[in-house]
Predict the structure.
Amino acid sequence: MSNRQDSGQSQSELKSTAVGVGLRPEHYQDVLEQAPSIDFLEVHSENFFADAGISVDLLQEVSASTPISLHGTSAGLGSVEAVPDDYLKKLKRLVDRVDPVLVSDHLCFTWARIGGRLFHGGDLLPIPYTEDSLLHAVNNIDRIQQYLGRQIAIENVCAYIEFDQSDFDEASFIGEIVARTQCGLILDINNLMVNARNGQVSNLENFVDRYVGSLDHSAITEIHLAGSTPVGEEELLIDDHACPVTVAGWQTYERVLNVIGPKPTLIEWDNNLPSWRELLGEATKARKAQRRVLGSERSHESL
Amino acid sequence: MNLSDYQAHFLEFLFGGTSTPVQPNSEVYRFGVEAKAVRALEQGYPTVRALLGPADFEGLALDYFRMIRKQSGDWGEFGWGFPSWIISHRISDRVPYLSDVARLDNYVSRVERSQYEEVNVASFNAIGEDLAFCSLILNKGLQFFRSMYPVVSIWEAHKSETPKDTLSFAQAKRMIAKGRGQSALVYRAGWKGMAEVIPEKDLLLLEAVRDQRSIAEVFGEDVLKDTNFTYWLRDMIAKGVIVGAKTIY
C-alpha cells in the first residue's frame, strides 16, 4: 500500500524547519491564556480519546490555530495481535476532530492474549527484529493506514532488553517496514543515544552515522529530542523525558541534520516538567541548532 | 519461544502473574507500568487516595492492577471497575464506605469525560395540558445513586488539605455514627464534575424520569405529591440534569 503522497493527508503540512513541543496537561492553562508561538504542538493521542471534556475541547480549540501532531503510545504496532477496532475508532474520531499534521506511534508491542483474553501492557515493549515481527508490524501499520486513510509514522524506541536472535539490525528492520508500508519515520535521537549508552557502544558518532546512513531520509517526517536523567555508570539509562536535551543530544542533532537536512523537530518533555516558558526555550535552542547547520548546508533548505 | 508466546509471557510478567522475567532487565518495564497504573488510579480516585494515604493507596492500586490487569489502550479508562472490586478486598472490612466513595470519584471522572447534553429549550413545548402524554428527558451524561454512607460529605471533606477541619467531615462522622447515608447527584458545571446530596424524593423522580414514565405518572406518586413540579424542573434544568421533554403515546 502506498500512503506517502496519499491525498488523505492533512491540509496543512509543516515546514521542514518547523519546531514543536509536547503539550501536557500541566501547560493547558498557559496555552489557553496565550496562543503558543510555536510551529506545532504534539500531544499523546490516547489522552484525548474521551467522548468529551476539557482536554478534548482544549485540543479542538488549539488545533484551530496551531498544527497538531498526534503521537500515540498505545497502538502496539509490533503486537502479534491486531490493533483492536475500538482503539482504531477512537483514534479515527480524534484525527477527524483535530486534522493533525502527523499521526504516529512507536515500533513496539503492547497487546497480547493471555488465556484467550486480550490485555494491554501499558508501555512501549520491545520486539525482536525478526521476520515474524516484521510481518506483524507491517500488517498492523497497513491496517491503521487503511483505517485512517492516511500515512502514519513509526518511531524507534528504547529497548532495555537484548534478544538472542534477530534477522535484522534496527535500522534495516525499520527500513524494511518503511519500504513495505510506505509509512513515515520519526527519528528519536534520544532513544538512539540511550540504546547506544546502555548497549555500551564505544563510539556514539559512528553508531549514529551508521544508523542514520542506512535509513531512507525521505521517509523521516519528524525528529524527536529529549533528555534523560543521568544515572551511575553501572545503571541502565532510562528514557524518562525528565530533563533538558543534553549537550551531547544537541551535538547529535546537528550531526543528523547535516546528513539528512532539516526536518520538523519536536522537543519532548513528559516528567518533571519545566515551566511553559522554559519548554519554549528548548524549542528556541533547536531553531538555533538548525540555523547553525543550515548556514553551512544551504542545499538542504526546503519547505 | 515463538513471538506470540514471548509477548504473552512478557505481559504475564508485567502483571505479576509470573516472577520469571522474559529477559534480563525486564523488571524495568514492570516498575514503569506499575507506576503508571498507580498514577492513573490516583488521578481517577482522589478521594480514595486522600482517605487511605499514599502508601495504602499504592498497595491497593497495585493489588487491583495485578488482579484485573489492563485491557484498554487508554490509561484514562483504567480502573473503571475499581469501585466494585474494592468490595471484595480486605480493606472494605476496615473502611466499609470505601467502595461507595470510589464510585462517586469514578462518576465524577466519567461525567467530566462524557458527552454532556445541552438543554433543548424548545422541546419543553411538548409539555401540554395533559401531563400523561409527555415525559422529561434526562441528561445521559449524568449519574446518581443511593448510598448507605454519607459519600458526598466524605467527598467534599477530602477536597480540603485538612479534611478533619471541615464541616463536611463532622457531618460525615455524625451520619456514620447514626448509620445514615446520602443519595448523590453527579453532574457537570462547565468542565468540572460536581456532586451534591439530593433528597430521596429527587432520587425517586430521577429514577422515574430515567424509566421514561409520563410526568403525570411521576408526580402522581404518593410520595412525590408534595413536590412542586415547576420549581423542581427549573432547578434540574439549571443544572443540566433535565435537558428536554417529549410527547409520548
About this structure: Residues 116-249 of chain B form one domain.
